[in-house]
TrEMBL record:
Chief site of localization: cytoplasm
UniProt EC number: 2.1.2.11
Lineage: Bacteria, Pseudomonadati, Pseudomonadota, Alphaproteobacteria, Sphingomonadales
Organism: Sphingomonas humi
Protein name: 3-methyl-2-oxobutanoate hydroxymethyltransferase
Cofactor, how bound (note): Binds 1 Mg(2+) ion per subunit.
Catalytic activity as recorded in UniProt: (6R)-5,10-methylene-5,6,7,8-tetrahydrofolate + 3-methyl-2-oxobutanoate + H2O = 2-dehydropantoate + (6S)-5,6,7,8-tetrahydrofolate
Pathway it works in: Cofactor biosynthesis; (R)-pantothenate biosynthesis; (R)-pantoate from 3-methyl-2-oxobutanoate: step 1/2
Keywords of this entry: Cytoplasm, Magnesium, Metal-binding, Pantothenate biosynthesis, Transferase
Length: 273
């Protein structure tokens, strides 16, 4: 049975005057059916992240990512999963103008993919939109701190919340989206002290990426943790070197074709004896 939004949100429980998550939530990105199949048994949530812009399409940032890309990959991931909740990122330009624009875009994503939730970037400024969607049947996964769609405004991908003023702003952002009804919030690229403060302050799960072990769960870009993508930030732990392994396998194949040692009779159709 597939994880639901209330069940996932409910993993963070009231305990007296604080909130605790006994077992941290496990999340990864997925963009394709086959990767979804492989990750699904291990994850509480699969995110069809707009990081597919860089990872799949070779784009310079997530800014050029389109609704068509998110819908096509979102549908593939839903088809390849049965256990994890699937959330799809709203691409830049599809939701910021108004709550009405966001609703139309999010409804399209849900209809075309079958996903149960959407994710969008932004804090206080997006809170009315988070409320508008939530009240109309669209669960919202929020994302504050380092918000990659704002790279042109932020000037880069450096960690956020180093100054007290910036940390206070990000805490306010997390509070605002939680109050507006988001079921969980990604904290990206923030200082540990801030992640800890936010995790204590909001009743919804905080999901960290470059945001310390203080969060209620963790997410990584799958290609990064598998060693499949070339540039990886400091907060990524490489659990394997799939790029190296693919390189070796393909080099062996190329060598065998060139030396005529592949294919052999095992891979060849001949009349039955
Ligand atoms: O696009 C993405 O992959 C993300 C996460 C890593 C949080 O937004
Ligand atoms: Na994203």
């Amino acid at each position: 049975k597939r994880m639901t939004v209330p069940a996932l949100k409910g993993r963070k429980k009231a305990d007296g005057d604080r909130f605790v998550t006994e077992q941290p939530l496990v999340m990864l990105t997925a963009y394709t059916m086959r990767n979804a199949q492989l990750l699904d048994p291990h994850c509480d949530l699969l995110l069809v992240g707009d990081s597919l812009g860089q990872v799949i399409y070779g784009l310079p940032s997530t800014v050029p990512v389109t609704m068509e890309m998110m819908c096509a990959h979102g549908a593939a991931v839903v088809r390849g999963s049965w256990h994890a909740l699937v959330a799809v990122d709203m691409p830049f330009g599809s939701y910021e103008a108004s709550p009405e624009q966001a609703f139309a875009s999010a409804a399209r994503v849900m209809k075309e993919t079958g996903c149960a939730a959407v994710k969008l970037e932004g804090g206080e400024a997006m809170a009315p939109t988070v409320r508008f969607l939530t009240e109309r049947g669209i669960p919202v996964f929020a994302h504050v701190g380092l918000t990659p769609q704002a790279v042109n405004a932020l000037g880069g991908y450096g960690a956020r919340g180093r100054s007290e003023a910036e940390a206070a702003k990000i805490l306010g952002d997390a509070r605002a989206v939680a109050d507006a009804g988001a079921f969980a919030v990604v904290l990206e690229g923030v200082m540990e002290s801030l992640a800890e403060e936010i995790t204590r302050a909001v009743p919804i799960p905080t999901i960290g990426i470059g945001a310390s072990p203080q969060c209620d769960g963790q997410i990584l870009v799958t290609e990064d943790m598998l060693g499949l993508f070339e540039r990886t930030p400091r907060f990524v732990k490489r659990y394997d070197d799939l790029a190296g392994r693919i390189g070796e396998a393909v080099a062996t194949y190329a060598d065998e074709v060139r030396t005529r040692s592949f294919p052999t009779s095992d891979q060849t159709y001949r009349p039955k004896a």
